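Two entries, shown back to back:
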Amino acid sequence: MISETKKRRTSARSRSTNLLLLALLPLAVFTGLVANTAGTRWGIHPSVFHGIAAFAVLILSPWKQVIVRRGLGRRRKTSWISITLLVLVISTLTTGIMHAFGYQGRIGPLTLMQVHVGGALIALVLAYFHYRSHPVRFTRPVDANRRSFLKAAGVSVGAALTWIGLEGTLDALGASGGERRFTGSHERGSFDPRGFPVTSWLDDRVQTIDADDWVLGIGGSTMSLADIDALPHEEFAAVLDCTSAWYTSQLWTGVRLDRLIDPGSDRAIVVRSQTGYSRRFPVSDIESLWLVTHVGGEPLSAGHGFPARIVAPGRRGFWWVKWVTEIDTSPVPWWIQLPFPAT
C-alpha cells in the first residue's frame, strides 16, 4: 500500500513537472522572439518575462533530471530525443546567462546569440516530438490540485526572485551586464562611426558599391547619390539595437522619407537592398524613417550600408535596411510579411 501511494505521488510530481515545462518552454521561446523584435520601451519589456521563464525552467531542472534518468532506464527508442533536448536546454540557458554577464565572444563560428536563439528554436521543435512520444494531457484531477498550484506558484515566484537577484548582483558588482539596455543588448562603440560592429542579416554579405554607379529607385523615378546629397540633410541621434544583442548610439545624417516620397493612399513603404533584402513599413512611420548617408559626420562605410541605408528609430536592427536601392509604396499592409526576414 505504501509502495502504491509512493508511486502515485511520484507520478503526480512527474506530471506536474512535465506540464509546467510544456508551458514554460514555448513561453520562453515566444517571449525571447518578441524581445528580439521590440525596439521601444514598454511598461514591462518582454525581455523581463523571457528571463523569468528561463529561470523557471532552470528551477524545474532537478525534477526533470530525475524523470529523464528514470526514463533512460527503460531504454526507449526515443531516448535520444530526451537527451538532445536536455543538452539544448542546458546550452540555451547557459548562453543566456553568459550574455547577461557580458560575454560577447564566439562559440566556434557562431556568435553567442546565434547559439542561444538557434538552440532554443531547435529545442522547441524537439519538445514537440518529445511530448508526442510521451503524451502528457491535462485531464487528471491531480493536475489541478492544491499541490500542483503551489508548485507552479513557487516556481514562478522563485524564478522572478532569481531574475531580480541576478540583475541586482550585476548592478552591485558593476559588471558589464548591469549596463544592458532594456532589450538586453550591450553597448558597442557609441558615437564612434568606426567602432560599432558590422553585421548583416543571415546570408547577406557586405556590398561594395561604386558611388558613381549607384542609383536609387524611388516612387517610379530615380535619384543619384549627387541628387540625394543636394537635398537638405539633418543630423540626429538614434540608437541602433541589433538582434545580435548589442546596441550603439550614433549621430546620423540624412533625409526624412516623407521628403522623398508621397505614399498617397497606399498603406506601406517598401524598402529594398541591393542584396534583395527588403522590409515593409507602415505609412504612419514615414515621418520617423530616414535615408542616411553619413554617420558621425563621415560617409557610411561599406559594412554600415554605403552609400545609403535606412535608420528606423525605435525598431530593431533588422529593419535598418542597408545598401538601399529602391524605396516605393504599396497598397498591401505592412504586416503582411514575416516577423523576421527569411534570408
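entry 2 starts here
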Amino acid sequence: MERALYDRIGVGYSGTRRADPRVAAVIWEALGDARTVVNIGAGVGSYEPADRDVVAVEPSAVMIAQRPVGAARVVQAEAESLPFPDDSFDAAMAILSDHHWRDRLAGWRELRRVARRRVVLFNADPGDAALFWLTVEYLPQFLELIPARYRVAGVWRDELEQALGRVTLRPVTIPHDCLDGFYGAFWRRPERYLEPRVRAGISVFAQLDPGDVERAVRGLAADLASGAWEEKYGDLRKLSELDLGYYVITADLA
C-alpha cells in the first residue's frame, strides 16, 4: 500500500514535510548511542540523524527522487521484507510510516530482526484518533481507515509488544508552530487545512473519498468564516502545545 500511495501523492511532498527540531530531538534521544541506523519508510529523510551512519529504506521511487543531495544511502524495499541480514544495525527506526505498511506486525518484526539493540518508532496511537477536532468535527471517515481492533484502547500497545517485546512509550506533544506538516500539525492553525498544498502532503486526505474531503474543507471554511470554529475551539489558540496521542516508542532488544 505504501508504495502505491506515495507514488501517487509524493510529488511535492518535501515542500510541506520537513523535520520539526523539537520532535527530532525526542527521536534522536531515543536512538541512544546507536551508531548505525536503518530508517524504514524513510521518505525524503526528514528525521535521519546526520551524525550517525544511516541507511534509508523507501518503497516509492517518487519519494526517493526527492531525497536531497547528501542524504543517506537509500534502498528501495518494503518494511515487511527487508533486504538485510539479522542484526545488521544498532537501531531501526520508522517515523510516521508503519500505519501504511501492508502488514504492520510483519514490518515491526522485521525491524526487530535487523536491529541489534533498539527499535524506535514515532507515530500516533490509533486508539487516540478521536482526540483531534479535525477528525471528530469534519473527517469522521478517517476513523474508518483505522483497523477496528486498533480502535480499542490498549490493543495497539499489545501488538507492539507482541512484535517487539517490552516497549516504552514517551508522549510527544505537538508544538503550535510544528514545521512538519503531518495530519495533527496544524491543530492551532486550522486555516492551513484549507490549502490544497498542505493537504497534498498528508496521506489521510489521499486515502479518503474526495467527496468527503471536499465536504470537510467546505465545512471548516464556513465555520472559520462564521466564527463557529473559534467559538468551539478558540481556546486552543492559547496553547503552545497539544497532546494528540503521538508517541516515540522504544523497544530495547539487548
